């Protein structure tokens, strides 16, 4: 079966395909992302803005795919343009599947624009998928639609997961080893409120003998002249660094190998989100055996085991974040997911997608 997936080159989409062929199910061939600068060419690195979202692309290429599957990447499309896309798919007789990753867009300060897009996409889709039961229930409540719940596949490649698992099994217990808590402020999204979270964490980690609060951020946020320079955050972090209260690391975008190495070095990663739905970062931590402290907004707790604290648009509850840090210290690092465990899950997710596509055809 030929599937036009938006986008095709994202790691989430690549890991929807099985590691091993599934008996009795057809192979899924996903169309490569057309190059935005030249839609006649495919690309594996630059997919924004997605060419496949153009109604004219659907009309010109309808004979090249059997199912259209939207994941994300439609931020810049108006509700009217998305309605034109859905109409083009109906005219072409091609089933439309939409995976609802975000019920609140982490890149938008307010929810109105994304809600208007969802008001088009969710009713128009022939089938819906989401990642957690809570998100499916919200979809049912708001739009009266039933969504298939399929878990997020692994993010880290299987060999790296196996290596992390082997290292953890062989790692001796060092009671005096520093307890490292990480916050990644990267290129700030509107969904993040790191300032109040960091103020609480600085006190919580300071109370732990050998505790280290590591803050990683991108240069565009923390250095003057950066496109998203946040002077107040940068000043606070530099001041805390001078006082020896944080281990500050400023760098550009990390390639995967360096990102996995960084995550694996942490005992716990704290997600500083004030709103959101699901998290790929959380999945990477699960793959590598890094504990996660997640806010109680969204459906992070349903993705996998997390320690929860209260954080939403109204602010951070300091007591719950202190308690989550103490709990992470008491529990110790979780075991990394074995490559085999995540492969079994991926096989099931791939099979479910193939069954769904075939039923729509």
Explain what you see.
This protein folds into 2 domains: 2-153 and 342-360, 3-Layer(aba) Sandwich (Rossmann fold); 158-331, Rossmann fold (3-Layer(aba) Sandwich), CATH 3.40.50. Helices cover 42% and strands 19% of the residues. It contains 14 helices and 16 strands. It has helices spanning 11-14, 55-61, 79-92, 112-124, 133-143, 158-170, 194-206, 219-222, 231-242, 256-265, 280-288, 300-303, 318-331, 339-360; strands at 2-6, 29-30, 33-35, 38-43, 67-70, 96-100, 127-130, 147-149, 179-186, 211-218, 247-251, 268-270, 291-295, 307-309, 311-312, 315-316. Strand 1 (2-6), helix 1 (11-14) and strand 2 form a beta-alpha-beta unit. The longest helix has 22 residues, at 339-360. It is globular and about 65 Å long. Residues 27-41 have a biased composition (Basic and acidic residues). Keywords: Transferase. Residues 24-43 are annotated as: Disordered.
Describe the strand arrangement of the main beta sheet, using strand numbers: 2-1-5-6-7-8
Computed CA radius of gyration, to the nearest angstrom = 21 Å
Percentage beta strand:
15-25%
Category from helices, strands and their pairing: alpha/beta
The major beta sheet can be summarized as: 6 strands, parallel
CATH topology title of the largest domain: Rossmann fold
H-E order? EHEEEHEHEHEHEHEHEHHEHEHEHEEEHH
Give the overall silhouette.
Answer: globular
Question: How many domains in all?
Answer: 2
CATH architecture of the largest domain: 3-Layer(aba) Sandwich
- Name of the CATH first level of the largest domain: Alpha Beta
